[in-house]
Amino acid sequence: MDMSSPEWPRLRPLELKWLDDGGRSVLYLRDPSGLAPNAATVPGFVAVIIGLCDGQHDLPSIQAAFERRTGQSITLDQVRDVVQQLDNALFLDSPRFRGVRQQVLDEYRAAAQRPPALVDRVYPSDPTELIAEFDRYAAEAPFDGQPTSGNLRGVISPHIDYQRGGPIYAATWRRAAAAVQDAEIVIIFGTDHSGGLGKVTLTRQSYATPFGILPTAVDVVDAVAEAIGPEDAFEEELHHRKEHSIELATVWLHRLRQDAPPPVVPILCGSFYSFTEGEADPSTDARFERALDALRVATAGRRVLVVAAADLAHVGPAFGDSEPYRDVDRTRLATLDERLLSAVCDGNAGEFFGQLRDERDSRRICGLPPIYLTLRFLGETKGEVVGYDQCPADAEGGSLVSIGGVVLE
To answer: Model pTM?
Structure first.
């Protein structure tokens, strides 16, 4: 395998943002997938080179474009050195990166299960300690009514960390407790924060929690993979390795079914950017239609519980807004979120999506894909909001993440 510096370098999908470093702007790079183990900050001149790593410029053309844009001289060896460092850091889509990715994928698939990524960071690994923590959240939870029984078919659960969202988690899963006990199979749609446009990503691995292993319903996974094409279905499978959305739902689910854990279908849902910003409509997307149809057929005759592991708005300077959110902004956000959750409770996937398309998803509803697909799978349904909160997302309190818990019959 050729591990030399790429001659036509292409940057991988990364988190990029400018930071102030003592009055000097530096570019921050981080790989959300976790394949590149370390984040990095680079000065402005390197950022110019990074901006030219699009797969359309070879090293000499990067050199020439850099000099035109900056008015500064740079040697071809200096360009090559920067590109080599980017490649060594696994920031480029290159033979080096693809070799590492395949090795990690092989190790992930060969493991006995998908190990928890957040254990002893977001929640304790010891089951007794974890149950005590959940009990503390339950004492703070906005309980309203008794656990729902009967025809409960769906749950909207947060995927924010437990420290901020614990009471809403506790209220939501308490209301869903009877349905969890009755479920013969659980489908979990989770946000893939680094997922590709419109992706539906599967895995055959079972999710482990501090309570043991939640078995994956491989027969259902294979049916969906066959419907949308195995290459497409598993192209981004490694995102399951570090993505937290499904994991944080499975722990609460498993807490309620420790003795006889139900089989689970874990599905990560990629970005809806092409739908909220363009003319495409997810209701006519062939990939979604095939996936949902296959899910319905493969789970027919079983009591199915569907979970959307989904947060709501991400607003304020921490997420790119120019101004911090103040009391009046929080009130307005709550009103908009209430309207959005009303569409969810009406089981109206089109209205839910339409509200966000109309505003071009300006609130950054990261739970859009899993909630939409949950509503599409359930069809006619009615729901109830169990709890709502706005959680701080920076030290100043000007950024926040809104979350809600919903049960659907």
So the answer is: 0.91
